[in-house]
Amino acid sequence: MPGSEGSPLRPGIVLLITHDEGGGVERFVARHATSLAAEGETCWFLRPDSFGGPARLERPGEVPLTFDPKRGHAALLSLLRGAVGRIEVHHLRSHAPRFKRLPLELGVPFRVVMHDWSLLCPRATLTRPDGGFCGEAGPEACASCVSGYAMMPVAAPRGVAALRRDSAALLRRAERVVVASRDGARRIRRHFPGVEPVLEPWEEAPPPPAPPGQTPWPRICVAGRLTRHKGFEVLRDCAADAAARKLPMDFVLVGRSMDDAALRATGRCAVTGEYAEGTGEAWVRAQRAAIGFIPSIWPETWCYAQSVLVAAGLPVAAFALGAQGERVAASGGIALPLGLPPGRINDLLLARMAGLAMPSQSERPPLHA
Predict the structure, then answer these.
(1) Going along the chain, which residue ranges are E strands?
(2) Same domain, 333 and 261
(3) How confident is the model over 212-236, as pLDDT tens digits?
(4) Mean pLDDT of all residues in the chain?
(5) Half-sphere exposure of 100 toward its Cβ, with a 13 Å CA cutoff?
(6) SUPFAM superfamilies, from UniProt (predicted)?
(7) In what order do the strands lie in the sheet with 84-89?
(8) The pTM is what?
(9) Residues 158 and 56 grouped into a single domain
């Protein structure tokens, strides 16, 4: 039977329930687990082996165990009881419905860390099928949004209203609900009355950045992985507008996107490819950009790409929503109204860069240097 093998169980283990999709969640969980280990804690991880599939229990130094959603729930529960001293819920959306109730079933203290809006929205991003911000519509309006959404049987098998009821029960039982921004705290209070989140920024404030070694160009730098809700279409359309109007500006994505070829095809957007952990600041500095841009069109709960741009010494432009908008407002960056047309975005960015000279082709650094 799963769970009958391996080393003896040790009381006081911390179970981190998360997903297996990488990105900012994985970055946070990995760093946090390292901190817990440094404090003498033993961390186990529970991840879905696939979206809605078996749960995979990872224990230090041991072969992972998998538990089938239909037949393995009782075995997993039995293994965890008596071993786990507390739980951290980082992500439940991609777990099979039977496993989503584990934090309540185990009967140990748990806290919930909000990495996105999957406890409110089956899509996790509060965006419509076309990628635009939904404005946090009520469950009734959500029905048409998620109609035909392929992930519903796992993300919200009983519908949006039931998802929010279940989430409210989870959050109210939690010892602590952690958010990284005041914007996130406001959204939690609005949708889950009686829940008082605790503010814990994901990162320490970086030291003041070193001044750029060379005069910047009128170049806009975007960092990270761009999907639709992360602003892929915003960047593509801004680059296309710059080309169509022959504006003295260009863009570079330090990272990758859902369609790098489409960005490059504008003639005004270069794509470097994904950078390794810890090297983003150096890659951004190498582009000699004048402004960093977060084109994300959903209310982020945090944004590591924004931290990379800030650490590289760039003023940042972002839409005025979510954690990204909150941070831009606090830093004196460029707050853009959500939905601003690409041409108007470019006009505002260009005005901020007035007087900077465009580089010649020979001056531009190779993208993979």
Answers:
(1) 13-17, 43-48, 55-58, 65-67, 84-89, 110-113, 176-179, 198-199, 219-226, 250-257, 269-271, 291-294, 316-319, 334-336
(2) yes
(3) 667 899 999 999 999 999 999 999 9
(4) 90
(5) 23
(6) UDP-Glycosyltransferase/glycogen phosphorylase
(7) 65-67, 55-58, 43-48, 13-17, 84-89, 110-113, 176-179, 198-199
(8) 0.89
(9) yes
Nearest to 24 by CA among 324, 285, 337, 328: 324
Q: Tell me: the pLDDT tens digits for 311-363?
A: 999 999 999 999 999 999 998 899 999 999 999 999 999 999 988 888 877 77
Extract the runs of DSSP E, i.e. beta strands, from 258-357. Answer: 269-271, 291-294, 316-319, 334-336
**b or e along 305-330 (b: 16 or more beta carbons within 10 Å of the residue's beta carbon)?**
bbbbbbbbbbebbbbebbbbbbbbee
Positions in the chain short of pLDDT 70: 1-11, 139, 206-213, 365-369
Residue type, 277: E
In a domain, 278, yes or no: yes
Burial 261-288 (b: 16+ CB within 10 A, else e): ebbeebebbbbbeebeeeebbebbbbbb
| 150/282 same-domain check | no
Phi then psi dihedrals of residue 154, to 5 deg: -105, -50
CATH of the domain at 262: 3.40.50.2000
Reported residue count of the chain is 369
Domain span at residue 187?
13-199
Q: Mind listing the pLDDT tens digit for each residue in 203-214? A: 877 666 666 667
